[in-house]
Structure formats: structure tokens, C-alpha cells
Amino acid sequence: MPHAMMHSMSAEMQQCLDNCSSCHDSCTQTAAHCLKEGGKHAEPSHITLLLDCAQICETSADAMMRGSTQSATICRACADICRACAESCDAVGETQCAAICRKCAESCTKMASMTM
Fold it and tell me: How far is CA 30 from each of CA 20, 26, 61, 87, 99, rounded to the nearest angstrom?
């Protein structure tokens, strides 16, 4: 990240960026793991949700970093998808991914309510 951008970024935004990055990584890795596990882990709806979550987390982080006027809208969508993904992960026993998704949802909800 450029040095000048780091100084103008709030601690809340930096935390949200970190949470989005962690969630992206976790969902991507969990999707690969679940495909190997098979059965209920590899149900198309679960895999699709994991990949949707990973993608919206990356999009949300990108929007925040560039100061998009749509950041709040994207963060709200990210929070909604992260919550849905957490529920899906809980249903198949992927509790670590679920926890990371919930943490991201919380920080994205906060960012969506702030003026960016």
C-alpha cells in the first residue's frame, strides 16, 4: 500500500481491510478443502457462497483503498454475504471459516455506517 494512503486511513478502515483479506483467503482455502472433503461440504450452494464471499471481500477492500463513493454499498453487501457464508460454514462444521466471516461482517457493517 502506498505510504501516503496508510497515513490517511483510519484504524477502523485498516482493520476492515485486514479482515476482508483474511476472509478472502479463508473462504478460498475452505472452498478447496470442501471440494476435497466431498459430500455436504462440496454442495454447489456452499462452494458458490464461499467463492462469492471471497470475491466480495476482495472487491470491498479494493473499493475502500481507492476511496470509492460506492464503498458503503459494497461493504453492506460484503457484510450480508459474509453472514450468509458464516451460516453455511457452520452448517458443514467449518467453524474457523465461519468465525472469520463473522469478524469480517462486523467490520464491514461498521464501515458501511461510516462516511468514507
Answer: 15, 6, 20, 14, 12
